[in-house]
Specification:
- 33% of the residues lie in helices and 14% in strands.
- It has 3 helices and 5 strands.
- Strands 3-2-1-4-5 form a 5-stranded mixed beta sheet, with helices on one face.
Length: 138
């Protein structure tokens, strides 16, 4: 009888030397799909208006508004009433100066909220809060 070719008559215990590339193809397809999905997001441009160099005069010293523990207001260190606040804020906006607000930790939140609403109604756009230095996380 003729002998069968050697590759067809191997025993079931013989090692199989062919490489299974199906998992490799699966991984490559997943990576390809991830690239196809993420590349358009990375190339998407968001228009941002950035300042263009020196605008001329340097900004003035910002005004400071303090809310004390009893709820009274201090404008640049001088006592003032609630009725005077809108006029002072309008002057600060007209001068294009920033406003710094510092609130005493014992002041009531409702008082801070009312003052902040007045600041917003006055149209102040340059605003910063002072006094959060204790909240730094080291």
């Amino acid at each position: 009888m003729p002998r069968a070719p050697a590759d067809r008559t191997r025993s079931s215990d013989a090692p199989f030397s062919a490489l299974n590339i199906t998992p490799l193809i699966d991984v490559m397809l997943v990576l390809l799909i991830m690239l196809i999905v993420t590349i358009p997001g990375m190339t998407h441009k968001v228009p941002v208006d950035l300042p263009q160099g020196d605008s001329g005069a340097p900004p003035g010293v910002p005004h400071r508004l303090d809310i004390t523990a009893d709820g009274s207001l201090l404008w640049d260190g001088a006592q003032m009433s609630d009725a005077q606040l809108p006029a002072r804020l309008a002057d600060g906006v007209a001068e294009d100066r920033a406003l710094l607000i510092q609130t005493d930790e014992a002041a009531r939140y409702a008082r801070f909220d009312a003052v902040l609403a007045t600041v917003k109604r006055a149209g102040v756009t340059k605003l910063a809060f002072v006094g959060n230095e204790r909240m730094k996380i080291d």
